[in-house]
Amino acid sequence: MRVDVIRKDSLFSPDPGRIIPRFTFTTESRSIEILNAVLAFTEVEVSIAMNQLLRGFSTRHRNVTRIFEKHYNKLSHLVSMLNIDEKKLSFARKALIGSCFTHEYSIESAAFYNPSVVEHPDQSGLLPDEKRVIFSFRATGEGHISSIVFRSGVLDSENNLMMEPVGRMPAEADVVKRNIYIKKAFLQKLSVMQSKENVVLTSLLLGNLGESFSYSELMRCMNEQQNRPVFPDKALASQIMCMASSQYEIDFSIDSAISERVIFPFSSAGQKGIEDARFVKFTEDDGEITYYATYTANNGTSLVPKLIKTSDFYHFNVIPMYGEIVANTGMALFPRKINGRYAMLCRIDDVNNYISYSDNINIWHDAELLQKPKYPWEILQIGNAGSPIETEQGWLVITHAVGPMGKCVISASLFDLDDPGRETGRLREPLILPDKTEREGYVPNVIFSCGSIIHNESLIIPYSMSDHTSSYASVDLKELMNELQGVEKSITESIDNQIDGLINSRYNSVLKVA
Fold first, then answer.
1. What's the structural domain count of the chain?
2. Is 78 contained in some domain?
3. Is the pLDDT of residue 382 over 80?
């Protein structure tokens, strides 16, 4: 029997008007040409140029001159090369230079998809049956570069969404902070991904660094090493720098709306996109709440899973993940520890669903087979569609499944609370299939989700339609659980047994009278 799914009218669609200012660097020689050209302008010419710029862009970006100044500061090494006294440069000239290395990027122009939803940290000012929520999305723009963006709203007693106004000045983080690296730990983490030969070579390459070092010190060290005739191939150097750029912290302005905060690819590991964030509200052993998200960093040639950590959606810590099973997409963290260990769903072979346990949230070595494709509509692939949801009946896992013609649907399975490696129920039919209005898009015939929640005894499932636009649906939780547990079948069998018992009893009574 199919479970009733109520599709909601809310649509989250691509909006080409959502733009962010990006720093653009060409070659060093061309950059120096641009610098010299601006330096040759008179102050009057600089003033006129800045006035024209501000008329056109000050209403499109918050504090645009500060953005220009920040981008100018990224060119300070070139300014030093030209022996220019920066103290003699006016703020307007610096801002004009910065603007020449800035361009607008439309973050959502191509697609707005693969959503997840979590409970908002702030639940104040709501009615008893309401819940404030945060949706995350994969937004894709020109060149198919993906970023993480957010929307917020309130679910009412009928599971209808009252959207909060969407801010019109999205921006990247105000502050990006690199970590200080401890050499011993850094080499140890690199060794997980390297051959024995490269482990030794890496140790030699970093020999001139101290016991702790910054990202800039590492970059300077690697640049010096490249001038040596015995320098190894570029792949190893790229791996070392990619590892270093994988961990950083970002802070957004306190006066920004959550819909204005854009987590855009920052490190070289994800320069082509940040894909499919699966957010989950995680309860620590001491009761503290932390929001984690697993996502995939795409550098153009490979996909690398990573972890995001936040408590307020203003400050985010980006953490690399290590281990033998961290080699594929689709990792989803359980919302609490299981028997004292972290637990994660993953798909390490592109076909089946797996489960992994670890004592460290970002180191994962072993995985156990959890589910194989079983029905025709999931015969090509089965995987998670977000983090497991804890219920009284067990761990509810929303799954995605791929069948003939690459048709991707959403379904559900149930697993034991104490032993989530044991499946206790699985839908025999898909929960959500793409209908005729959802089949067309960037990738046809695909319904996909990255995380659901429970609200007012209903399952709230955000989903994307053919990798283009997103919406959400609600499902009665009791009806879903009954179907997963085969309650209807059990009730029918019980009634049949009772009827058989009554018939036998009457028959025996008749025999006795006879």
1. 3
2. yes
3. yes
